[in-house]
């Protein structure tokens, strides 16, 4: 008791560190207690559970967000419904390429369900996909697709015109022939064209959980879909060299039986995918790069557009050139034929939409229109509707007709046009795709493509920034809006902040972009984008109640966003003249006191009064939710600040949990400590000790300690009372870029420039866990406290990968505790079975517990007591009932026993029983049995030679016994002799001597 009081007094005097007190006696297990002084000057006595957990931390990757899309076109698949569900529950999946990997993701959540990496180092240039369903399901799926699209569309007005009446009369004449669908095996197929002139055809299989399917991990990457109850796997069907020049186009026909490939030399080849042979070898007259291809659903004609603006039409059946023409001066982006195959629509990058006839050897232009957009991509949803993507991100939908003028149906202005800023190449739309309209499904309807109902479909738009937006038609206007965005490539993750529990979103991620994205799930889908900065965003901050978000970057502005309407409500200007590198809110926030601190490359430290300028714009409504009532954001300046806070750029900043201290650090190697007095900042001290620039700072949540990470590879812990370095943690000289406290301040997590996360136990100054979670610099690191007292580490790096590492120490401790309890019970059962003579039960328990010594004792006692029963039971009942894993374990034990001469008899008995109960072919098929049998054979031969040598030596005993005379040999001991017998023997000897 007196010792505890002494420690309390010592803690009050030193204030700033943790003390470890060990209590207990020799008879009682010692317990470790942590005595800490928190930020409110209170002595905290914590139980020994936390100390015991140190050194036994367990971490695992919960999920990761990796690059899945690196440009190019995208495709869609229609996956069949799992077993036990209706066909209407089928889901759409998106197919895209990233480098040399094909990725398939759920369109709704962005979760990766399957991926395939090319066997050779290569780059994928084009992808396409087709879903071939069973004939009885084809019509049902087509109806379901149409119903889902109609739910998202507006009810259009009735159209009148001579052309539409003529199209209605020609429905029966142009109905699709479904014989081609029957000739192709049902399934989902993906085709890719690579830079090395190779074409790969992959099959996507959906495997139910109850099926026992063996998959090669080197070729596939399966992922289980929790909602569907099945896993998807990509397997290569076949591959071949498709051309002698680079492949520019790879496209399935509507039936899925043929694959069209176009090359840069003007050659167009059509392949029978499933019979694996070339069916067409065509060449356009201009001999220029093939840029676009169109095959009508009936597979009667094939239209080819070149990069130089030429258009050619071939007869698909006769394999001959019908007509050609030159209507564009730039690349032809999209082609389409009318249902009666009389007119051809083409649109190019020269903004020209041409309509021509196909009734002669030369295409004759009938009409032409000029669109307003600088075309970067185009898609004919039907012969009457075209979607055009522009270089500035603008998306327009036009209604096309042979007899009527071009009519604009919908238009979504691009980000640069909406912000009245200069055009940005990142916003250029590279690929368009209609939602719920995968190839191979909708063609079953005979009315598809013949009638224009005037309704607009939802679209997927892939831009040059590797983002795929899901665009829905605006019911109240004549445009589109992005409901969600699939982020295909994060670029460099510069900062990330988690939202508090209970908030609809999980995290906010800042990448090397002008936009900040918020994610609600672990997938790649971002349902909210903060757009407004004029340059790259470098840092972000979230208020305690997640009502306000702050972002800053290279445009020297601090923007404040309301999470009620996700709009900018205030802008802080005039505080910095260079890049803003870090911003942070104060810890104890209230309506009367809420400030934001910012530092930048200009060496300045600024304090922004958020409570005065920003909070008044967020009044509470009747439900207590903050809502923004202003139409335009207010602009204000900083409240106070420090000029030239450091002698160089400032990179890191942190606020103490009690809002008393503010720490800053940068390139000058110093850590400056500032005292916060209300809304003013005063210099307190400068902590020196690092040999290189300081990259990150973090205050302990429980102790009055500051941690600083530096490029010199060390992490220093500073006492805020003595203002000295009390501990240095260093593993190597690799720069440490991130640091954070967790587990109530007893542990540290660091991230370095090589992508390695390390967890340190502060008391022992040692690493308790280390993981290579990234391949490049870790720029961002955040902690999320979970409900089960575990921690989730969110780390982002320069390689564009975001990883969530979960601390499951408590779960692992509970598992180990339960396993140990179960082992103790089993060991007691084993002892009872051996004592009572139940050797069969004891044999199985010892084998299950993985106790070779107990198992050997069981066999020895059993063979000594009843050798015949032991051998019979092993051969007939015990060994045949063992599984493959248990049998391999028994053979491994036997290998250990046979290496010792004292236990070789037990090993020989076990091997005899194993060979008697299992055929040798069954043993040879087991994995890793070769090495076991080699060792057994070597030692068995050695013991056999030793036994043969012992047997040979016994022959000397027989020789000696038979060589001696019969009188000398007696069954009685030599020291017990009869006197009469001795006298008779002596007399006999004398008689023999006299005779001689």
Automatic annotation (TrEMBL):
<keyword id="KW-0853">WD repeat</keyword>
<dbReference type="GO" id="GO:0032040">
    <property type="term" value="C:small-subunit processome"/>
</dbReference>
<dbReference type="GO" id="GO:0005840">
    <property type="term" value="C:ribosome"/>
</dbReference>
<feature type="domain" description="U3 small nucleolar RNA-associated protein 13 C-terminal">
    <location>
        <begin position="827"/>
        <end position="963"/>
    </location>
</feature>
<keyword id="KW-0677">Repeat</keyword>
<dbReference type="InterPro" id="IPR013934">
    <property type="entry name" value="Utp13_C"/>
</dbReference>
<dbReference type="GO" id="GO:0034511">
    <property type="term" value="F:U3 snoRNA binding"/>
</dbReference>
<keyword id="KW-0687">Ribonucleoprotein</keyword>
<dbReference type="InterPro" id="IPR001680">
    <property type="entry name" value="WD40_rpt"/>
</dbReference>
<dbReference type="InterPro" id="IPR011047">
    <property type="entry name" value="Quinoprotein_ADH-like_sf"/>
</dbReference>
<dbReference type="GO" id="GO:0030686">
    <property type="term" value="C:90S preribosome"/>
</dbReference>
<dbReference type="GO" id="GO:0000480">
    <property type="term" value="P:endonucleolytic cleavage in 5'-ETS of tricistronic rRNA transcript (SSU-rRNA, 5.8S rRNA, LSU-rRNA)"/>
</dbReference>
<dbReference type="Pfam" id="PF08625">
    <property type="entry name" value="Utp13"/>
</dbReference>
<feature type="repeat" description="WD">
    <location>
        <begin position="687"/>
        <end position="728"/>
    </location>
</feature>
<feature type="repeat" description="WD">
    <location>
        <begin position="573"/>
        <end position="610"/>
    </location>
</feature>
<dbReference type="InterPro" id="IPR015943">
    <property type="entry name" value="WD40/YVTN_repeat-like_dom_sf"/>
</dbReference>
<feature type="region of interest" description="Disordered">
    <location>
        <begin position="152"/>
        <end position="178"/>
    </location>
</feature>
<dbReference type="InterPro" id="IPR019775">
    <property type="entry name" value="WD40_repeat_CS"/>
</dbReference>
<protein>
    <recommendedName>
        <fullName>U3 small nucleolar RNA-associated protein 13 C-terminal domain-containing protein</fullName>
    </recommendedName>
</protein>
<feature type="repeat" description="WD">
    <location>
        <begin position="530"/>
        <end position="571"/>
    </location>
</feature>
<feature type="repeat" description="WD">
    <location>
        <begin position="240"/>
        <end position="281"/>
    </location>
</feature>
<feature type="repeat" description="WD">
    <location>
        <begin position="729"/>
        <end position="770"/>
    </location>
</feature>
<dbReference type="InterPro" id="IPR020472">
    <property type="entry name" value="WD40_PAC1"/>
</dbReference>
<keyword id="KW-0689">Ribosomal protein</keyword>
<dbReference type="GO" id="GO:0000472">
    <property type="term" value="P:endonucleolytic cleavage to generate mature 5'-end of SSU-rRNA from (SSU-rRNA, 5.8S rRNA, LSU-rRNA)"/>
</dbReference>
<dbReference type="Pfam" id="PF00400">
    <property type="entry name" value="WD40"/>
</dbReference>
<keyword id="KW-0539">Nucleus</keyword>
<feature type="compositionally biased region" description="Basic and acidic residues">
    <location>
        <begin position="157"/>
        <end position="178"/>
    </location>
</feature>
<feature type="repeat" description="WD">
    <location>
        <begin position="643"/>
        <end position="684"/>
    </location>
</feature>
């Amino acid at each position: 008791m007196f010792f505890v009081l002494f420690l309390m007094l010592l803690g009050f005097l030193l204030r700033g560190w943790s003390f470890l007190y060990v209590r207990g006696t020799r008879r009682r297990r010692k317990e470790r207690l942590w005595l800490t002084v928190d930020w409110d000057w209170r002595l905290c006595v914590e139980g020994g559970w936390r100390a015991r957990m140190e050194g036994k931390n367990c971490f695992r990757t919960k999920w990761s967000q990796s690059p899945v899309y690196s440009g190019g076109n995208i495709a869609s698949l229609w996956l069949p419904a799992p077993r036990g569900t209706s066909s209407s529950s089928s889901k759409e999946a998106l197919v895209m390429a990233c480098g040399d990997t094909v990725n398939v993701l759920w369109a709704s959540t962005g979760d990766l369900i399957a991926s395939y990496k090319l066997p050779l180092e290569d780059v994928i240039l084009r992808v396409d996909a087709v879903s071939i369903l069973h004939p009885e399901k084809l019509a049902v799926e087509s109806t379901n697709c149409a119903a889902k699209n109609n739910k998202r569309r507006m009810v259009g007005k009735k159209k009148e015109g001579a052309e539409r009446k003529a199209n209605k009369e020609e429905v029966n004449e142009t109905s699709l022939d479904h014989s081609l669908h029957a000739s192709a095996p049902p399934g989902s197929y993906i085709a890719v064209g690579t830079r090395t002139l190779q074409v790969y055809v992959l099959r996507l299989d959906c495997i139910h959980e109850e099926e026992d399917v063996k998959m090669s991990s080197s070729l596939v990457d399966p992922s289980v879909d929790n909602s569907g109850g099945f896993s998807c796997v990509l397997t290569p069907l076949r591959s071949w060299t498709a051309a002698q020049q680079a492949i520019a186009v790879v496209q399935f026909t509507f039936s899925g039986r043929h694959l069209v490939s176009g090359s840069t030399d003007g050659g167009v080849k059509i392949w029978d995918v499933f019979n694996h042979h070339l069916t067409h070898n065509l060449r356009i007259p201009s001999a220029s790069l093939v840029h676009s291809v169109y095959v009508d659903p009936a597979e009667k004609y094939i239209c080819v557009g070149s990069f130089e603006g030429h258009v050619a039409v071939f007869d698909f059946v006769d394999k001959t050139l019908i007509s050609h023409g030159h209507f564009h001066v730039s690349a032809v982006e999209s082609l389409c034929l009318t249902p009666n195959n009389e007119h051809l629509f083409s649109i190019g990058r020269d903004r020209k939409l041409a309509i021509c006839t196909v009734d002669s050897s030369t295409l004759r232009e009938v009409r032409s229109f000029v669109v307003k957009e600088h075309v970067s991509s185009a898609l004919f949803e039907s012969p009457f509707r075209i979607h055009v993507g522009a270089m500035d991100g603008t998306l327009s939908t036009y209604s096309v007709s042979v007899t009527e003028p071009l009519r604009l149906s919908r238009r979504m202005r691009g980000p640069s046009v909406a912000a009245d800023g200069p055009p940005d190449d990142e916003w250029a739309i590279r690929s368009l795709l209609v939602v719920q309209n995968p190839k191979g499904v909708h063609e079953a309807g005979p009315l598809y493509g013949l009638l224009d109902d005037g309704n607009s479909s939802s679209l997927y738009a892939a831009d040059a920034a590797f983002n795929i937006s899901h665009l829905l038609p605006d019911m109240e206007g004549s445009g589109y809006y992005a409901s969600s965005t699939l982020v295909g490539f994060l670029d460099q993750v510069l900062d990330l902040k988690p939202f508090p529990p209970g908030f609809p979103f999980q995290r906010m991620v800042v990448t090397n972009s002008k936009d900040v994205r918020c994610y609600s799930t672990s997938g790649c889908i971002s349902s909210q984008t903060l757009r407004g900065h004029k340059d790259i965003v470098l840092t972000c901050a979230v208020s305690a109640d997640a009502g306000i978000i702050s972002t800053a970057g290279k445009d020297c502005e601090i923007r404040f966003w309301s999470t009620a309407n996700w709009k900018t409500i205030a802008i802080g200007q005039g505080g910095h003249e260079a890049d803003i590198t870090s911003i942070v809110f104060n810890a104890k926030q209230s309506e009367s006191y809420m400030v934001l601190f910012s530092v930048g490359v200009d060496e300045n430290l600024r304090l922004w009064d958020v409570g005065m300028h920003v909070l008044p714009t967020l009044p509470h409504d009747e439900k207590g939710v903050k809502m923004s009532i202003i139409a335009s954001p207010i602009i204000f300046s900083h409240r106070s600040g420090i000029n030239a806070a450091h002698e160089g750029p400032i990179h890191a900043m942190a606020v103490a949990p009690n809002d008393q201290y503010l720490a800053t650090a940068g390139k000058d190697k110093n850590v400056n400590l500032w005292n916060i007095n209300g809304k003013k900042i005063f210099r307190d001290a400068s902590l020196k000790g690092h040999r290189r620039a300081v990259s990150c700072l973090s205050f302990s949540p429980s102790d009055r300690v500051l941690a600083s990470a530096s490029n010199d590879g060390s992490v220093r812990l500073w006492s805020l009372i003595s203002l000295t370095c009390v501990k240095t943690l260093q593993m190597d000289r690799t720069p440490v870029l991130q640091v954070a406290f967790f587990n109530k301040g007893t542990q540290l997590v660091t991230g370095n420039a090589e992508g390695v996360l390390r967890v340190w136990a502060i008391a022992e100054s040692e690493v308790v866990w280390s993981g290579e979670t990234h391949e490049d610099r870790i720029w961002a690191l955040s902690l999320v406290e979970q409900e089960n007292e575990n921690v989730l580490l969110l780390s982002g790096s320069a390689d564009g990968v975001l990883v969530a590492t979960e601390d499951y120490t408590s779960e692992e401790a509970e598992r180990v505790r339960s396993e140990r309890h179960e082992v103790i019970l089993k060991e007691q059962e084993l002892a009872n079975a051996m004592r009572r003579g139940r050797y069969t039960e004891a044999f199985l328990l010892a084998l299950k517990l993985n106790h070779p010594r107990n198992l050997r004792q069981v066999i020895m006692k059993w063979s000594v007591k009843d050798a015949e029963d032991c051998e019979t039971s092993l051969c007939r009942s015990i060994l045949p009932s063992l599984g493959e894993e248990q049998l391999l374990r028994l053979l491994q034990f036997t290998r250990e026993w046979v290496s010792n001469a004292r236990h070789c008899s037990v090993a020989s008995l076990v091997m005899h029983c194993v060979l008697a109960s299992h055929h040798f072919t069954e043993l040879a098929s087991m994995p890793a049995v070769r090495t076991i049998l080699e060792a057994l054979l070597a030692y068995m031969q050695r013991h056999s030679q030793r036994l043969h040598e012992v047997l040979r030596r016994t022959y000397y005993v027989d020789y000696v016994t038979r060589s001696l005379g019969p009188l000398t040999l007696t069954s009685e001991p030599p020291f017990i002799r009869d006197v009469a017998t001795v006298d008779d023997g002596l007399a006999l000897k004398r008689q023999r001597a006299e005779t001689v």
